[in-house]
Amino acid sequence: MTAFPNSLIPANEATRLRTLHLYQIVNTTPEPIFDDYVAWAAQLFNTPISLISFVDEDHVYFKAVAGVEGVPGLPRTESMCSAAILPDVPVVTSDYKTSSCELIKPDVAQAMGLNFYAGAALRMPDGSRIGMMAVIGREARGLSTNETTVLKQLADLVSETVELRFNYLNTQQPQAWESAQAELAETLEDNTTLARYLTNRNQGLNLDDDETQELVLRRLNGVDKVLKRRMSEATAN
């Protein structure tokens, strides 16, 4: 389990919030590519819930959620994401017991029968951790080294996508952003098909199988290449 600090408010909170608000993504309407990311994460990690969150001053906003309907966010004091952005570690794992993390009130999670949380921070170029890519389950478990690697890389892709979105929209290129989402979605669909195939073949997706992890990481790298090419195009215009 991860060791948490004594306060929900990090020392760099003012800078972190400035960075978060720069990207103009807090409390915005759903966008397909972020929905695709959480659907894929839930599939990869065999969890009923996956989400992308942004941690604002008093509230945690869910940009995309798979597995839960009608929950746009939670007060900062009630979301594990608000605690998970604090430690400077690649991936945070925890349960929802008060003894594991005293910084939040786990009432909502416990009412839903949740016993597992793993998340990797969305880190922006200045180093600010503005939110989380998280997978959440009802069965207590941990993450293997291979699973940690995949979740970290998936969070990095989401962070790059947030940056790409900002560059397109900040330069008045909404159609290019729509086109980028479509291209990324097509690449992710290939990944989803792969995950479905591996799940059926192996009676479950096992990232600790070296062949499976290699195939998944290869696809993650494919998404990363699309993002980097698109970013180069966006910043050149």
Describe the structure.
- The protein is of the alpha+beta class and 237 residues long.
- It has one domain (13-232): Beta-Lactamase.
- The protein has 7 helices and 6 strands, in the order H-H-E-E-E-H-E-H-E-E-H-H-H.
- The protein has helices spanning 13-22, 32-45, 80-84, 107-111, 145-170, 174-202, 210-236; strands at residues 49-55, 59-66, 73-75, 92-94, 116-123, 129-137.
- A 6-stranded antiparallel β-sheet has the order 3-2-1-6-5-4.
- A hairpin with a 5-residue loop joins strand 5 (116-123) and strand 6.
- Helix 2 (32-45) packs antiparallel against helix 5 (145-170) and helix 5 runs parallel beside helix 7 (210-236).
- It is globular.
Features:
about 240 residues, alpha+beta, Beta-Lactamase, 6-stranded antiparallel β-sheet, 6 strands
Under CATH, the topology is which?
Answer: Beta-Lactamase
**CATH level 4 superfamily:** GAF domain
Calculate the terminal CA-CA distance, rounded to whole Å.
45 Å
The DSSP helix count reads 7
Portion in beta strands: 15-25%
Structural class, by secondary structure, is alpha+beta
Number of domains: 1
Which strands sit side by side, in order, in the main sheet? 3-2-1-6-5-4
